[in-house]
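Hey, I was hoping to borrow your eyes for a little while. No rush at all, and the record is pasted right below:
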Amino acid sequence: MRRTLDSMVAQRVQPALWLIVDDGSTDETPAILAEYAAAHDWIKIAPKPDRGHRAVGPGVIEAFYFGLDQVDLKDFAFVCKLDLDLDLPPGYFETLIARMQENPRIGTCSGKPYARNSNGELVAETAGDEMSVGMTKFFSVTCFEDIGGFVHEVMWDGIDCHTARMKGWTPKSWDEEGLRFEHLRPMGSSQQSIYTGRRRHGFGQHYMGSDPLYFVATAINKMRHPPIVLGGLAMLQGYFGAMLRGNRQYDDPELRAFIRNYQWRALRMGKKKAVAQIEAERAAVFASK
């Protein structure tokens, strides 16, 4: 947490307001947050009652909106949902803001997460260039409001980017010096195990409406990364388990059809070409705003 706080204090462009939601910490977190808030007037703390358990996905967004409900978005040009387990380079937000100003169609963007392996080496986490990553969801307020904000479900950080692209925006992330940051807790892990995280991802992909064939291809590709084979199998278990149980899906048939159309194109021509084709087609939607 201190590494995240220190990296934000060191930003060349600091937030006008950083509202940190403490949703029931029982360790030294409140004292550490109070220390930083006392030293920096743009850091505010929003204590939230403890829900009594960890709720990955919906719980994260519940905490985010607990904070967002205490501010008026009309006072700001940008909004970011930021996790407290990141070490960001000092020009991180300066660069993102500059790129969004250069290309107003970029409604949400991020850098790329890296995590340390068992040997202490920084290794890139999987994150497609066509999405902004969940731990630093940086949005223009205009785009955020256009997509209706985040859904209170486990796949909120995929649904937001697909909705933005459907509405003509361009979600982006860049893997380059100055935008690479260290994720201090591995992506897709869980309070139980990394396999729980992988199953949760599969469950979320089913909820979002991902095509079965596309998701099988995704899971097979994931088997190349640790935990080898088993991580991908856990993803398939989560997805097809949700399908067999008849679990509900996101209640937006238009978006689910849009996602599957993109995924079929990606299988045929690759993600990069599919995204470029769709964004060219949706340019008129953005121009009409």
Observations:
- Residues 18 and 157 are 20 Å apart (CA to CA).
- The radius of gyration is 19 Å.
- The first helix runs from residue 2 to 9.
- The longest strand covers residues 18-22.
